[in-house]
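Example protein
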Amino acid sequence: MATPGAGRRESRPPGATAAVALPGAATLLGLMNYTAPIATLSDTGAGLHAGTTARIWVMSSISLGLAAALLAVGALADDHGRRRLFALGGALLALSSVGCALAPASAAFVAGRIVQGVATAALLATGLGIIGHTFTGAARARAAGIWGAMLGLGIALGPIAAAWLTRLGDWRLWYWVTVAASVALTAASRALPESRAEHRRGLDLPGLVTMVGGISALLSAVTLGRTGWTRPPVLALLAAAVVLLAAFVVVQARRTSPMLDLGLFRRPAFLLSVGGALITGLGVIGLMSNLVTVMVGAMRLSPLAAAFVLAIWSGMSYVVALQARRLPARWSSGLLLGAGLALSAVSELAMLGISPGTPWWRLAPGLLVAGVGSGLANTMLARLAVDSVPPERASMGSGANNTARYTGAALGVAMVFAITTNGGATPDAMTHGFDIALLVSAVLCAVGAVVTVPLTRRLSAHATISTVLPTPGR
């Protein structure tokens, strides 16, 4: 006789606990490390004797490694084993963090941060790929929600932990903590289930070279462009980026086993995944990455206090992402992604009007609404990243999603920085510029929310047709 409720229990696949806990821990660590310099830039720059341009690279260099490597490591993980690439990512993060901790000057530190970005790319792409392969249905939605929640929690804790460790001793302490955490993560990776695609596609070397080269040239141009967009090196890098990225598209269209299947862009879910991630990077991460600088430079908060204020946004994002699984199943991922972007737009409008005398709590309502929007968006993007591609290509789907997110973030950081500092570095000029940046970011998020509507309708229509049409052979 069956026990009551037995039919409602979901069977847990082997290694299910590790397949949620370790990708979540890796994402938490990766995002904490990604955001750590936001609150310690002044101390880090002084310790490395970094000038204005070098400080820009201190902030941006990890985005270069992340965006350039995400799609490539996702494809490699699908072919050669997601657990294997996850462990390699953890080991590489430990080694590169040693380099950052011991860096004698800004050039060595920036090189270490770029390698940290590559290592973080391996952890993010393989982690979400492991979740996509291990779980299905409602269990996958819950696991993706936890993964999405770790994005918010990492952004909340990173600046706080780094600022606190800097007050405790030195800005380098954070990187030694990252070394220890990365070593522990690598050792624990043995508990993960191994998974890979049934058929290897092989190394797409032309695609790899053109994609990495194109994204690297683009983000390098964006970083250098903050000190002058018409300078010859910037224009040369932008031209190289256009040529290389166009070549990447041509290479992918002609290969029988491409790194990125361009046919996926005909899927509404994939367009939502990649497009939503790009808008999130441009309109949300770019803005919030500059907010601490405005709070410290114009509102006269300490770095640690500014980090706690920023945590209103990222902490709420964490809470909402964890609870998103309780939303009605009839509410589609596309609908909730659009709602998240719309709330982000509203929140940015709510923060308009700050000035050098504005108290920190004036930002709190907008940051709370922004946290709700980001929590919804992060969770839905994680679901779409694995649901929009075939199961054997889960890491590639994650790589494409996160490539769009962190390319958008790098562009967004540059855009907001340029707008905020366009009128000068005085507190009045900075807050006026940030008001303009808030408006621009709100428009981007609103446009993103509107675009999700037709894509969500197409996604719903596609799902209905798939349900109604008979399965071949029946």
